[in-house]
Amino acid sequence: MFLDKCLDKTSCMLLIVESCDVQSVQTMRRSLVSRNRLKAIIKEKFAINNRNWGIYAALFQTVDKLAGVSKYPVVGPILKKILRFDHPEKNYTQGYVINLDKSLRDSQNVVLPITLVEKAIQESSYRAIMHKCICRDGGVKCRDYPADFGCIFIGEGSRVTEKRGIARSVSIDEALAHIRKAAGYGLVCQTIWVEAEEFVWGIDSDKLHHFLEICFCCPCCCIALKNYRRVGKDIQDRFRSVGWKAHVLKECTACGVCETRCPKQAIRIQNQQVSVTEDCIGCGFCAAVCQENAIDIDQISPMKEHINDYFFGFRPEV
């Protein structure tokens, strides 16, 4: 009798727990639906479109002023939380620098970095070219490179850029021609996935992992390249090389021009000796400004098969 009562009580308790679990799941589900609905409304009203482009292009330049703040106590952590840089184990904003130069010295029988981008384009489900570069078009217009030469967005999540009137859908051949043109301009490619930009471009939350930016960056205007020096190491380390690094040759005169141009302060000059640190991203800007032709960009590790393979935490499916 006593045992029967105990079993009845245990059964009742289990039923209550199960009921609570079901209610908890339902509550969480409703909360998630409400949150996604709110995010969709915010994106629809405030994400970039062809009408507010000029405002956002100007606002993008304020990042220059805010970047250094990320290293300050109190304010820095708040800014990193807003921009989703605070938890590397769950916030996966990152990027990889790709030198588009097809004439890298001593590159015989070596797979060049540009092939990673070309393969990503060829295998992508959707491609769009931005009408303008938001970095070159904001604030003071770029004097050295065309502002109407925009990034390529790939993946199903990119379709929203065409819908909002800031990009046009293109074929694989058109996108490949765009990459070759970028190489001709001497621009550096960055393949970037920025989590907070779901609100900037208006990307659907469920398509955020089906989206990748292929940016063509100049040293004078690119928000990312200009701010590598100003942010902390935790943010810097999210943006990396795909296995290429600058190498200083004996012809170097230690003039210091490359040290000034390097976006990551990876070139150091001490006692007329020039060294390149592990922070080098292989962009090639140093080699481009070297009047002595004394810098090579060399492969230091084997490249992976796809650009998606470099990403940590998740793999963009584009």
Structure write-up:
Helix 5 (114-123) packs antiparallel against helix 8 (172-185). The model is unreliable at 1-7 (pLDDT under 50). The strands form three sheets. Strands 4-2-3-6-5-1-7 form a seven-stranded mixed sheet. A two-stranded antiparallel sheet has the order 8-11. It has a two-stranded antiparallel ribbon with strand order 9-10. The longest helix is centred in the N-terminal third of the chain and has 45 residues, at 2-46. Helix content is 39%, strand content 15%. The protein folds into two domains: 56-243 and 306-310, no CATH class; 245-300, 2-Layer Sandwich (Alpha-Beta Plaits), CATH 3.30.70. The protein has 13 helices and eleven strands. The radius of gyration is 24 Å and the shape is globular. The protein has 318 residues and is α+β, with helices and mostly antiparallel strands.
Could you give a short description of this structure?
The chain is an alpha+beta fold and 318 residues long. 39% of the residues lie in helices and 15% in strands. Strands 4-2-3-6-5-1-7 form a seven-stranded mixed β-sheet. A two-stranded antiparallel sheet has the order 8-11.
Q: What value does the Rg take, in angstroms?
A: 24 Å
- The helix/strand order is HHHHEHEHEHEHEHEHHEEHEEHE
Global geometry: globular
Q: Portion of residues in helices?
A: 25-40%
| Low confidence ranges | 1-7
Instruction: Give the distance, in angstroms, between the N- and C-terminal Cα atoms.
Output: 64 Å
Kindly state the number of beta strands.
Answer: 11
**Major β-sheet annotation:** 7 strands, mixed
Mean pLDDT, all residues: 87
The count of domains is: 2
Count of helix runs: 13
Per DSSP, what share of the residues sits in E-state strands of 2 or more residues? 15-25%
Q: Name the strands of the widest sheet in spatial order.
A: 4-2-3-6-5-1-7
The class by helix and strand makeup works out as: alpha+beta
